[in-house]
Amino acid sequence: MFMRFVKFHGYGNDYLVFDAGQLQRLGWRAGFAPFGADDEFTEFVRRVCDRHFGAGADGLAVVERLDGEADFALRIFNPDGGEAAMSGNGSRCAAAALHFDGLWSDDELRFLTRAGVKRYTLRERLSTGAFRFEAEIGRPLFDTASIPMLTPTPLAEVRDYPLALTEDETVAVTALQMCNPNCCVFVEDFERVDWRRLGRTIERHAAFPERTNVEFVRTLDRENIEARVWERGAGETLSSGTGACAAAVASMIGGLTDRSVGVRMPGGLLRVVWRDDGEVLLTGTAEVVYRGEWLKGK
Q: Which domains does the chain possess?
């Protein structure tokens, strides 16, 4: 028994896209019910995402056809086996895979995710297997309860908050809920900051009971920022869609940029717009890498 998948990447942030029906045939359940035994499915995700002994990916996207408020259910899993509420790049890869395989043809596509229904609009077919989408990612939340973040007293907004890492080290952070917990650190020079060490430390800081994505942000001008990402459950990634949105919104509420910015990451440039109604739009591409078959028990 084997499971077919297709691998896409969004600016180097790569995902393996599986149809939920294949997992059902192997005894795992789709929708938002648990996929069989937690330990079994977690081990499967870890193995298939492994860069050396598996297919290799920053995460797994599982899609299931629906009738009703959304066209497909979408679940995103990190390479450590943990589940994310949403992934900007991962969901875009899933949308591209559905178009690529001929499972969806309309320009508009609705995903039901753990962060709600997300609307994807196909803006351009760049080439065979490459697509550009504009997506409604959601509305950011800033209070500590929504992030969630533990502070001595509840805060309506976490901006320039002094987060103590050790007795001798404190970092100013801006935190928000952008589909997932996100924590942003503003820097002047990536080369002069050990951001990987800081990202690893902040991800699992006691202040974040569900862990957090960590974005390191450098402002270029009113319309452009640059970011590095340490992603919860994945570590360093070349790009992150929700991370780009969080970095952009953090820059906007800090008065550093306008409400439409380009976010430059090592993998490429994403466009983030924060509409007046509070919705955050993310525009970016997804491109096919290869098809594959995963053997059960491998």
A: 2-134+285-295 (3.10.310.10), 158-278 (3.10.310.10)
